[in-house]
Amino acid sequence: MSGNIFDPDEAARYYDDTSTAEFYEKCWGGEDIHIGLYATGQESVAEASAAMTRHLLENAGIAPGHRVLDIACGFGGTLRKLARSGCRATGIDISNHCVNVARKANREAGLDDRIEVEVGDFHDIDSPPDKWDAVICQEAIIHSHNRPKVFAEAHRILRPGGVFAVSDILTADKANVSRVEAAFARIGASADATIRDYQQMAEEAGLVIEHAEERQSDIRAHYEKLADQLAQPNLDLDADSVASISKSISHWQAALANGDITWVCFVARKPL
Known about the structure:
By secondary structure, the chain is α/β, with parallel strands linked by helices. It has 10 helices and 7 strands. It has helices at residues 8-16, 18-27, 45-60, 77-84, 96-108, 147-157, 177-184, 195-204, 216-230, 239-257, and strands at 67-70, 88-93, 115-119, 132-138, 158-171, 208-214, 261-269. Helix 6 packs across helix 8, helix 7 (177-184) runs antiparallel to helix 10 and helix 9 (216-230) runs antiparallel to helix 10. The longest helix has 19 residues, at 239-257.
């Protein structure tokens, strides 16, 4: 592995950090913490993020009554979409802050009796085998220090015929790894995984990939939107935090402009 890779405790501290939490809540829209789909380019970050969730759930074929586990649920936006659609939704997240925000939002939405959220680690999921109709993970395996273990855990807890729906940020083929490492440094992620690596991890875990797509234009648009928001003079964030995050985003934009980073979505099924 390359760079300073976070272990689960360090990943939790990253998301529990006040400046990080405020950035995600104020610039990301407060509902989701993942990349969005930009059909027109006019969407807000929050609108695009919601569109991405719909896209992933539709590709996964998730339907009312399904038992769905989000293994890095963040602020719980996907869980609330699932609950409103009639699914039985459960989420885990490594961050106490994210879990608390998700629970509060669930209560305010009147959905806390239909959603369970707990602190948990996707390398070691507290679940019996063969339980879930679907497992969801949006832009989180990037934080893993043992990505094959995450795929193996998803396979273990899915019922036969269940699906693992994933979106994540990966290193592109023939990338300049130094630029990728500069982008990933703030979040403690490794630059050593490509879409082919994820496909291999899924297959070695016993999953069959049914759908896969790369969407580089969307992640470029997303980071342009974030950079624009951070440049707003009335942004209610600490000046030092804005400077630090803006510098990090400039590294992301450089890597994205050169095609070094890609964003992938795929659905893999546990065979019957």
